[in-house]
Structures are given as C-alpha cells and as structure tokens.
Amino acid sequence: MQRREFVKAMMAASLSSKVVLAQQQTGGQVAPATPPQTGLAPTPAPPAPGPVPWMSGLDNLKPPALGEITADMVAVTETRFFTGLQMATLRHLCDLLVPPWGKYPGALEAGAPEFLDFLIGASPLDRQQLFQGGLDRLDRESNEHFHKAFAALAPAEADTLIRPWLRTWMTDHPPTEPYARFINLAHADIRTATINSQAWAQAADAQSRGEALYWFPVDPDLRRKLTSAPGLAPNA
Questions:
Q1: How open is the CA angle 166-171-175, to the nearest 5 degrees?
Q2: Residue 173: beta bridge partners?
Q3: Please, what is the end-to-end C-alpha distance for the chain in angstroms?
Q4: Which pLDDT tens digit goes with each residue over 127-162?
Q5: Residues of 37-69 as b/e, b for ≥16 C-beta within 10 angstroms?
C-alpha cells in the first residue's frame, strides 16, 4: 500500500509541474482545448471515404451522348441480305404472285420484299441457300429463254417460268424438289408477309368502316332483359 501511494504522489507531482511550466510559457493562461463559438459557419464535414474496391474504375464512366434520330431515318429500309440482282428478282416475283386486290395493297405496296430480305437474312443457313439459289436460277432461266433479266419479264413471260413449278401442298409438307420447294415457299412467304403488313391492316380497317360494328357491354346481371340494345329482340 505504501508503494502504491508513493507512485500516485509522484505522478501527481509530475502533472503539476507540467501545468505550471505551460502557464509560465503562455503568460499564465492555458489555451482551451476547443475554439470558442463565435457564430461563424461550422467547420465543413470531412470528405467522404473513397470508392469501395468493387467500384474502382467506375468514376470516369459517362453515358454516351445520344444524337437526334429523325423518323425518316428509322423508317428507311435497306437491303442487307440479298444482292441487288436477287432483290430485283424478288421484287418482280412479289409483284406477280401477290398483286393488288381491290382496295387491298399488293406485296410491293406492303413492303413484302424488304421484310423477306430481313427475314431470310435471319433464317437458318439452309433456308438462306434455298432462296438465294432459287432467285439465281429464276434469273438464269429468264436469260436463257428470253435473253433478259427476270425483273424485266412481262407477266405472260414470267408465267411460263413459274407456273410449271406451282404445287398444291399442305402447310407442313412442302414439295421436296429444291426448286419447286423454293417457288411454293416463296409464294407462301410473300402472301403471309403481305396480309400481315401495316398497309394491309390499314386497308382492312378502312374497309370495315360504315358497317355499324360496335362493342356491346357485358351485363353481369343475366336476369336483366336485353331490351335497350338496338336490333336485339327482348330476352327473358
């Protein structure tokens, strides 16, 4: 116990001597630990810690600048798969197989050749080769028989090259002979592309106007007599 009390006394004496020395050096006043509040703006907060390791390198990434895209630029269709000669042959084939009908557009007006250029370009290799080989043969036979490109043939001339290869076939059983298969699949694809086009849908919508088509609301009360609907007889 005496040794412990002796150590405490020595430590107290050491601290007292340090305080006295500091007071002598500063004129008897000890600087406060914190500066007094003077109404000035508070000290700004320390900066936030740096990015975490998994965000390293992301600070300099900026989104790419987006340029203006006009509607005309988006609507332009470009030939991407067929060659120029193949596309000309396909366009004439579309015009012959699916011409305009009444107030409905034909394959050319519906943009079927451009759509098939996109479709066949994204199709399996065997279908691409079927169409490319078929279009090339069609133009080659045109030059052999009429000494001009297929795209320049009159309808009667083209008919002599196409009609012998048309077949009656089921949807899942097209002809097996390659060239007949091309002629009949091309005919089906051109027709499908035409009747599913926007131009065809707009023509169909225009044809349906004036036919008094309307939606009749569903009445959840089945016991109510339908006497208010025009053209409907009362029901119990």
A1: 40
A2: 170
A3: 112
A4: 999 999 999 999 999 999 999 999 999 999 999 999
A5: eeeeeeeeeeeeeeeeeeeeeeeeeeeeeeeee
